[in-house]
């Protein structure tokens, strides 16, 4: 996207330069005709012609100045638009959840609202996320402890020794058989248990 905008910018400037060159070329050609075809019998008018030429040159300078002002204004608008798009892309990249394995290799990039919970499976974790309106799973060699620490300031909260939940996607907190459960409101996702160890943290995050 950045390369495409730069190409458009250069094309825009090139087109403006072509117009300027044509205007200047036409003016120079007009001045040349005035100088060459001025009859000698009208030498008394030469000074008048020179005055006219001087005013024409001044007019061309004024035109060139305003053309340059418009060009600079258009350039500033284009650059500002490009910077806003660039900042928007950077913010979007920063907001994405990037999940690495235990070796530090990037395995998954997911939007926060698409990630539902992370499940422990021995030396692996299973990421449960939404992709094209369909729940999918991805197994990554890592630990819940590492995941919890990395996303400690995000919406991911440890609710059980075997689960980390995206608290933003929880629709309901309910009690069943003396057990607290976090419900996502999705039939394909079973409610997650909340252990006593993490219940206070979960309740605080839900009340925010």
Description:
It is a single chain. The protein is an alpha+beta fold and 208 residues long. The chain folds into two domains: 2-95; 97-207, Beta Barrel (OB fold (Dihydrolipoamide Acetyltransferase, E2P)), CATH 2.40.50. It is built from four helices and ten strands. The protein has helices at residues 2-36, 46-95, 144-150, 196-207, and strands at residues 97-100, 106-110, 115-121, 124-131, 134-140, 156-160, 163-166, 172-176, 179-183, 192-194. The strands form three sheets. The chain has a five-stranded antiparallel beta sheet. The protein has a three-stranded antiparallel beta sheet with strand order 8-9-10. A two-stranded antiparallel sheet has the order 1-2. The protein is rod-shaped and about 105 Å long. The protein starts with a helix and ends with a helix.
Concise structural overview:
The chain is of the alpha+beta class. Helix content is 50%, strand content 25%.
Annotate the secondary structure layout.
Layout lengths: L1 H35 L9 H50 L1 E4 L5 E5 L4 E7 L2 E8 L2 E7 L3 H7 L5 E5 L2 E4 L5 E5 L2 E5 L8 E3 L1 H12 L1
Antiparallel strand pairs: 1-2, 3-4, 3-7, 4-5, 6-7, 8-9, 9-10
Helix pairs in contact: 1-2
Give the key terms.
208 residues, alpha+beta, OB fold (Dihydrolipoamide Acetyltransferase, E2P), 5-stranded antiparallel beta sheet, 3-stranded antiparallel beta sheet, 10 strands, 25% strand
Average pLDDT rating: 77
Rg on CA atoms, Å: 34 Å
**CATH structural class of the largest domain:** Mainly Beta
Number of helices: 4
Total strand count, please? 10
- Range of strand content: 25-35%
Q: Looking at this structure, what is the CATH superfamily of the largest domain?
A: LytTr DNA-binding domain
Widest β-sheet, arrangement of strands: 5-4-3-7-6
Could you give the order of the helices and strands? HHEEEEEHEEEEEH
The shape, in one word, is rod-shaped
Largest sheet: 5 strands, antiparallel
Number of domains: 2
- Distance from first to last alpha carbon: 38 Å
Helix content: 40-55%
Poorly predicted tracts of residues: none
Quaternary structure state of the chains depicted: single chain
CATH architecture term of the largest domain:
Beta Barrel
**If you consult CATH, what is the topology of the largest domain?**
OB fold (Dihydrolipoamide Acetyltransferase, E2P)
């Amino acid at each position: 996207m950045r390369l495409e905008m730069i190409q458009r910018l250069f094309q825009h400037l090139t087109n403006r330069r072509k117009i300027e060159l044509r205007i200047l070329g036409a003016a120079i050609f007009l001045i040349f005709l005035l100088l060459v075809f001025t009859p000698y019998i009208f030498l008394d008018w030469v000074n008048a012609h020179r005055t006219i030429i001087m005013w024409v040159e001044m007019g061309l300078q004024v035109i060139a100045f305003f053309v340059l002002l418009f060009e600079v204004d258009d350039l500033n608008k284009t650059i500002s638009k490009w910077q806003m798009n660039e900042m928007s892309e950077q913010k979007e990249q920063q907001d994405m959840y990037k999940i690495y394995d235990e070796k530090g290799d990037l395995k998954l990039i997911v939007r926060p609202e698409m990630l539902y919970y992370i499940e422990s499976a021995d030396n692996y974790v299973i990421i449960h996320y939404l992709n094209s309106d369909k729940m999918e799973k991805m197994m990554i060699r890592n630990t819940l402890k590492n995941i919890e620490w990395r996303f400690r300031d995000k919406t991911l909260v440890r609710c059980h020794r075997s689960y980390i939940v995206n608290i933003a996607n929880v629709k309901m907190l309910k009690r069943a058989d003396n057990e607290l459960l976090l419900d996502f409101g999705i039939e394909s996702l079973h409610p997650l248990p909340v252990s006593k160890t993490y219940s206070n943290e979960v309740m605080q995050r839900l009340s925010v």
